[in-house]
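Thread: Modeling a multi-component assembly for a lab meeting

Hi all, long-time lurker, first post. My supervisor asked me to bring a structural picture of a complex we are working on to next week's group meeting, and I have zero experience with this. I have the sequence lines for every component (420 residues in total). Could someone generate the structure of the whole assembly? Inputs are pasted exactly as I received them:
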Amino acid sequence: MKSIIQKYPRAFLLIAAVFWFGLYKTLEPLSHILVNTLPLEAGSHAYGALQFFLYDTPKVLLLLAGVVMVMGMVNSYFTPERTRALLAGRHEGAGNIMASMLGIVTPFCSCSAVPLFIGFVQAGVPLGVTFSFLISAPMVNEVALALLLALFGWKIAALYLVMGLSIAIVAGYVIGRLKMEAHLEDWVRNMSHVQPIVGADELTLTERIYAGIASVREIVGKVWPYVLAGIAIGAGIHGYVPQDFMAGLMGRDAPWWSVPVSVLIGVPMYTNAAGIIPIVEALLAKGASLGTVLAFMMSVIALSLPELVILRKVLKPRLICTFVGVVSLGIMLVGYVFNAVV
Amino acid sequence: MKNIKVLGTGCANCKTTMKLIEDAARERGIEIQLEKIEEIQDIIAYGVISTPGVVVDGKVVHAGGVPARDKIAQWLND
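Re: Modeling a multi-component assembly
Sure thing. I ran the full set together rather than chain by chain. Output:
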């Protein structure tokens, strides 16, 4: 396999894609065959739960591996250093749109938020454009996308993508318009400007495939227990908790303020997209509506107390509050839109 | 003796990177001078904005993630 990747990287990708697709198509019939070999009565609760579990688990993991592989390869084209060079000197508007899109494809760990922020500002990326990047990078992430795709279909996944992008674009633009440069910490404002350098060397396709495989190992390796737990909870809850349990609090009968309250609860919480999935699954299974749950999920992923504490090193309190306020408002809006559409 | 610096604000990935380099050097019996740069201003001065970054003898060789083992071996053997 190693020599195929090295000698014929294109052929490897093609074969892998065909193999992946074939596997994906056989999952449903296979799960039926598997369940039928067990001594369970068709139509019983245990039968349904088991079939759901046996079909959903490989489906979610397969989609996750596929999406992460593609994203890992795409990521190898966009280092943060290169993204910075692309954004330096851009104007607001077009710059915000570009920054939000680059936020999706640029690999980014939230512990790099501060060096990245300073590096962007120092290279002359406008403040609002920098924020567009900082908002979209954690919010639109591949694990969340893969899970939405697997559990709710491509329409919801696409809607999530578009909404996440819109929040990043608009929130960054608003922050830029508010002219808050004075609320950067003084040492950040007084830094000398640097010319961004792009040091990254060109990678071969083989190296990009390896980068993709590495991120599948890293991300799927870390995330699968959460996914499994989430699906198990989802399957288990199905029959035992009344469907409408959450309907009054977060569902269709909920008062209008359930969206903002969900966001307020979500903001200080921090976990990665995979950690929040069991909660999302459980809430939905109990009758919560999708918009409210997604707003909760987005606020957990996009804003977190630890990240705000780190950002405090470079931002004065007023700018931090504006950042949290604008992003929360955007997320609430998305919650209402989802609730209205779905 | 090689001077290797790991640039990072102290997240888990930075610690892993330090450990990987330490282990790789010990395995090969190569003596290195390993430093950790944690001040943001100093990290930025190297032009690195995604951590962890690695600097070998004053030259940035890596940024934005835990480096692969064979990459580390390459730095040590060069």
